[in-house]
Amino acid sequence: MYTPAHFALDDPSQQQALIADNPFAQLITMDGDGLPHASHLPFLFFSGRLDGHMAKANPQWQHFQSNRDVLAIFSGPHGYISPSWYKNAPNVPTWNYTALHVYGRPRLIEDADQKKARQAHLVEVMESGFDVPWRMELPESYEQGMLAGIVTFEIEITRMEGKAKLSQNRKPEDLQGAITGLRATGRAEDERLADVMAAQLG
Q1: What local confidence, expressed as pLDDT, does residue 10 receive?
Q2: Which helix (H) or strand (E) holds 39?
Q3: Which of 58, 126, 153 is nearest to 136 (CA)?
Q4: How far is it, in rounded angstroms, from Cα 170 to Cα 86?
Q5: Regions of the chain with pLDDT less than 50
Q6: Which one of 54, 86, 95, 128 is separated from 61 by 20 to 30 angstroms, measured CA to CA?
Q7: Which domains are seen in the chain, by residue range?
């Protein structure tokens, strides 16, 4: 990922926070013919690894090889930045965003108890903000059928590349103008992006 130094997101705690806040990623693999494949999947971060799963009917898991990295792309808030929001001129439009590329070696989780435990933990994390969290307490035959229909895997992380393009290279008055402009659009994604940008102002 092209990342000028002033846009680098290389603090591990910030990288992990981006995953926690945006756990739905694109998993990129290469098949035997060198063609790229992508699936959109939820992931949980643990020290040194990502936990994930996909439908067994999805052939992408068959691309996993112990000696070849896969790529998971996490995207945070993003949005269009109008030059009309800046005090200084001339300028051109741009797009601000946060993103994290996670590379690693995939490994299938075959143990039935581990598969169940990892799915239960995913549910626990995703349900944690609800007033009455749903628990993975299912009839055994139904549960076994559902677990048999997925492939559970982990990715041992080999490197992470993060980018936060948030107008850090602009003058403070231009950064503030972009934040104000984003908040005025009424779009929830723009509001999220404005919050991230505003954090730079202290």
Answers
A1: 94
A2: strand 36-42
A3: 126
A4: 9
A5: none
A6: 128
A7: 5-197 (2.30.110.10)
Per-residue tokens: 180: 């104000």
pLDDT at position 65:
81
Q: From CA 68, how far away is CA 142, in angstroms rounded?
A: 35
Q: How many Cβ atoms sit within 10 Å of the Cβ of residue 74? A: 24
What are 185's two structure tokens?
Answer: 């659009």
Q: CA 30, CA 63: separation in Å to the nearest integer? A: 6
Q: What is the pTM of this model?
A: 0.93
DSSP codes, 125-162 = HHHTTSSS-------HHHHHHHHHTEEEEEEEEEEEEE
pLDDT at 202: 64
Whether the CA torsion 18, 21, 23, 26 is positive or negative: it is negative
